[in-house]
Amino acid sequence: MEFSSKLLENAVYEMSQLPGIGKRTALRLVLHLLKQPKEQTSRLADALVGLKNKVKFCKSCHNISDTELCEICSNPRRDESIVCVVEDIRDVMAIENTSQFKGLYHVLGGKISPMEGVGPQDLTIKPLVDKAKEGKIKELVFALSSTMEGDTTNFYIYKQLEDLDIKTSTIARGIAVGDELEYADEVTLGRSILNRIPFENSLKA
Ligand SMILES: [Zn+2]
């Protein structure tokens, strides 16, 4: 792509670094922003910079939060003995929407993926294991997408907890293999949390 302006080229380049945004889409978005009133573009820029500079991650579950301890972790009505292990905030939002889960979450920040160079040390697995060793957790519910990466991650965590007296379960899937949690409908997802199965059983299947 040949640009008549270095400024335009820069903006298009940065925009195209976003996932799913090719050069053409980036150009369309940048031209759109250029047509907007200056205040509008400033608000967008401020929101992004503010997010990056000020966002916090809950010190317990690692979910995105405005406070040190997120609303879910600091809610006394939640059951701290059961922890649902998810990949990111989208899964927390999807499961919260079902209103079927009253425990806490642990946000891993991704899945183990040798192909993408993501190892256990890149995720919040160690804090999870440390938390498990404190003895408050009675059950861990794996709710990662049932992809090879999800299964690998579940199994890795399961192995780390082997010596601890913690029940591990996995959400029952009415969901096809490879479907991401966030796309599952609320009823199906809610049911799959209620009908979770012992993790060991999922290994035999
Ligand atoms: Zn939290």
TrEMBL record:
The gene is recR. GO terms for biological process: DNA recombination; DNA repair. May play a role in DNA repair. It seems to be involved in an RecBC-independent recombinational process of DNA repair. It may act with RecF and RecO. The lineage of its organism: Bacteria, Pseudomonadati, Bacteroidota, Flavobacteriia, Flavobacteriales. PANTHER family: RECOMBINATION PROTEIN RECR. This is Recombination protein RecR. Keywords: DNA damage, DNA recombination, DNA repair, Metal-binding, Zinc, Zinc-finger. A zinc finger (C4-type) spans 58-73. The keyword DNA repair applies. Residues 81-176 form the Toprim domain. GO terms for molecular function: DNA binding; zinc ion binding. Signal peptide: none annotated. Belongs to the RecR family. It holds the Pfam family Toprim_4.
